[in-house]
Amino acid sequence: MSRTSPTTPTPPSPLATRLQGIGPTIFSQMSALALRTGSVNLGQGFPDVDGPPSVIAAAVEALQHGANQYAPGPGVPSLRQAIARHQQRHYGLELDPDTEVLVTTGATEGVAAALLGLVNPGEEVIALEPYYDSYPAMLQIAGAVCRGVRLRAPDFRLDVEELRAAVTPRTRFLLVNSPHNPTGTVLRDDELAALAAVAIEHDLVVITDEVYEHLTFTGHRHTSLATLPGMAERTLSLSSAGKSWSFTGWKVGWATGPAPLVAAVMAAKQWLTFTSGSPLQPAVAHALDHEPDFPGRLAADLEGRRDLLCAGLAAAGLPARVPEGTYFATTDISHLGWADGLDFCRSLPERAGVVAIPAQVFYDDPSAAGPGAQLVRWAFCKTPETITDGLARLRSADLQR
Ligand code: PMP
Ligand code: GLN
User: What is the C-alpha separation between 132 and 144, in angstroms, rounded?
Assistant: First the structure.
């Protein structure tokens, strides 16, 4: 006899309400699909070549020489000092490594700990839509209200009027991401100035995710929001070694800013992970101090791969917006007859042997009626051979609905 009969009620979901409605990340789903189908993975943003060998050697050295027990909660001093020097070198920001720098387990933990440590339930946070997926998830977990200000296709610029209109008496934070994932927009000085003006006028705290700070292309330059007049005292900056030094699997990131903001992030971080992995911290300190030119070389190299991808996509009938930074390009697929980019991306392994990311999942309304429904994101942090292989597959596939 069957142990379940048609009348057996479905057990209630054990999932806490704070997580309900938040699905598994699109990146895990799409990378699993790529593995399962043997597809070229132009989806999840991780490079297929590792960062500098000297940094790996520093990690091995640390592993072999005793860096194997808990690091101090805020991070090992040598890394905090190296992060302070990095902020000084690139942005002229003077930070106290003991109170204004915190090592996090990737920028992902930086985002989580910042939102849990700073935002009260019911407070409103303005963020740029499309959102990197951890933002809406963590805002929901924190009980915050997310107010999206859209970077509109096709050029994905900030609409300053829309930004101003999004502020209410309950707004407390701006959550900014530039260079921006998924659009590849690098906010211009006038856009950053508008964000700063709104933050100052309404006394908002700014949380700025700058993980792609070094990955900008010819004619575009990243400006850290904390460097704008009146901003250092209200800005928490987040970054990570993952993108800049091609060690996405190491999950070493950092939060920097005024001591009270950093202390609030630490207050949450201590209960999430207590402390981040010991042997990787001296190695990342080595990267920051001794491989300072690596990110610039990576960006120059990525620019070639961006051009390879964008030219090839155009030739395959999938013209993409050429991004100013990050390692992602976006195509609007509506001319191919698809209403829904998720359907397109699900069918792409079978049609072409390629995996891409449906950008609609980064919008408040991820349905086929939503504003991002026909946008598809391609990653070009892959070898030229992998990109060329993916492009050849796309060119020979029938991509019409
Ligand atoms: N923010 C953005 C915009 C990202 O694209 C990513 C992905 N790396 C992260 C945060 C997370 O960074 P990390 O891998 O260091 O946790
Ligand atoms: N940031 C990477 C991307 O956008 C992926 C990170 C992740 O898998 N969580 O593709």
Answer: 16
Task: Tell me, yes or no, if the pTM score tops 0.85.
Answer: yes
Is any atom of ligand 2 closer than 6 Å to the C-beta of 105? no
CA dihedral 60, 62, 68, 72 (to 10 degrees): -140
pLDDT for 275-285, tens place per residue? 999 999 999 99
- Three-class SS string for 163-213? HHHHCCCCEEEEEEECCCCCCCCCCCHHHHHHHHHHHHHCCCEEEEECCCC
If one residue of 185, 211, 214 were mutated to test the ligand 1 pocket, choosing by the most ligand atoms within 8 A of its CB, it would be 211
Which amino acid, residue 269? K
Ligand 1 pocket, CB under 6 A: 106-108, 132, 177, 181, 209, 211, 240, 242-243, 248, 251, 253
- Omega within 30 of 0 (cis) for the link into 47: no
Task: Determine the Cα–Cα distance for residues 38 and 348; give it in Å rounded to an integer.
Answer: 12
Long-range contacts of 57-61 (CB under 8 A, 24+ apart): 58/282, 58/283, 58/285, 58/286, 58/287, 59/279, 59/280, 59/282, 59/283, 61/282
Max alpha carbon distance in the chain (Å)? Answer: 73
